[in-house]
């Protein structure tokens, strides 16, 4: 033992070993708080958590050809009022041409085919399309009115989606998913 250490202990100062015990004890206390908090939070969802479960979007300003991106449950959601030509182009596509033949629409049967109608807001509202704006490859946000099929294009690795948000070319495996949504009036869409 060195002369210095002997001197420190004599004066009652913490030795290096005591100091290590102290810091370890503090880390454990912080860890316990971090673990306990999420449980308490889960039992008591506050107003903002509940509000995020669904959102209402006023789409009255969206003329044909215009789109809007909103945030829902932390993800971008694309809402597009498609032009008659865009709907027509998507309708003209044969199912056999599709890379992913499943509609991926949470509002209809999980096995429904990816026709344009099945991808849209449905009968009488075929012009409206609502989709999660997250590329099904690795999650980048695709760009609207872009790509080889006039729909969306993901520049990250080159995925092309058509005007119904169906994957047509590139590495993305599936169509952009359609979340649960409903028109609560002619101009308001509730998502979630
Ligand atoms: S994340 Fe979109 S192509 Fe890779």
UniProtKB/TrEMBL annotation:
Gene3D superfamilies: Rieske [2Fe-2S] iron-sulphur domain, Single helix bin
Provenance organism: Pseudorhizobium pelagicum
Catalytic activity: a quinol + 2 Fe(III)-[cytochrome c](out) = a quinone + 2 Fe(II)-[cytochrome c](out) + 2 H(+)(out)
Organism classification: Bacteria, Pseudomonadati, Pseudomonadota, Alphaproteobacteria, Hyphomicrobiales
Coiled-coil annotated spans: none
Protein name: Ubiquinol-cytochrome c reductase iron-sulfur subunit
InterPro entries xref list: Rieske_2Fe-2S, Rieske_2Fe-2S_sf, Rieske_Fe-S_prot, Rieske_Fe-S_prot_C, TAT_signal, TAT_signal_bac_arc, Ubiq_cytC_Rdtase_Fe-S_su_TAT, Ubiquinol_cyt_c_Rdtase_Fe-S-su
Annotated TM spans: 20-40
Annotated localization: Cell membrane
GO molecular function, one term: metal ion binding
Entry superkingdom: Bacteria
Keyword Iron-sulfur: yes
Other comment: The Rieske protein is a high potential 2Fe-2S protein.
Domain Rieske: 99-190
Listed GO CC annotations: plasma membrane
Catalytic activity, EC: 7.1.1.8
Purpose of the protein: Component of the ubiquinol-cytochrome c reductase complex (complex III or cytochrome b-c1 complex), which is a respiratory chain that generates an electrochemical potential coupled to ATP synthesis.
Subunit structure: The main subunits of complex b-c1 are: cytochrome b, cytochrome c1 and the Rieske protein.
Keywords attached to this entry: 2Fe-2S, Cell membrane, Disulfide bond, Electron transport, Iron, Iron-sulfur, Membrane, Metal-binding, Translocase, Transmembrane, Transmembrane helix, Transport
Lipid bilayer topology: Single-pass membrane protein
CDD domains: Rieske_cytochrome_bc1
PANTHER family per record: CYTOCHROME B-C1 COMPLEX SUBUNIT RIESKE, MITOCHONDRIAL (PTHR10134)
Enzyme superclass (EC): translocase
The record's free-text note on cofactor binding: Binds 1 [2Fe-2S] cluster per subunit.
One Pfam family per UniProt: Rieske
Keyword Lipid metabolism belongs to the record: no
Family note: Belongs to the Rieske iron-sulfur protein family.
């Amino acid at each position: 033992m060195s002369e210095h250490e002997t001197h420190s202990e004599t004066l009652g100062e913490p030795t290096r070993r005591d100091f290590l015990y102290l810091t370890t004890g503090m880390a454990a206390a912080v860890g316990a708080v971090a673990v306990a908090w999420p449980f308490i939070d889960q039992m008591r969802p506050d107003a903002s958590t509940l509000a995020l479960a669904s959102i209402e979007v006023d789409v009255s300003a969206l003329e044909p050809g215009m789109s809007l991106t909103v945030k829902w449950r932390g993800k971008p959601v694309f809402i597009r009022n498609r032009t008659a030509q865009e709907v027509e182009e998507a309708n003209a596509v044969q199912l056999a041409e599709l890379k992913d033949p499943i509609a991926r629409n949470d509002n209809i049967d999980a096995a429904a085919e990816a026709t344009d109608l099945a991808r849209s807001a449905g009968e009488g509202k075929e012009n409206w399309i609502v989709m999660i704006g997250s590329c099904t490859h690795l999650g980048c946000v695709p760009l609207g009115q872009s790509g080889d099929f006039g729909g969306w294009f993901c520049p990250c690795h080159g995925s092309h989606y058509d005007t119904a948000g169906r994957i047509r070319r590139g590495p993305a495996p599936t169509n952009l998913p359609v979340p649960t949504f409903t028109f609560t009036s002619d101009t308001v869409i509730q998502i979630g």
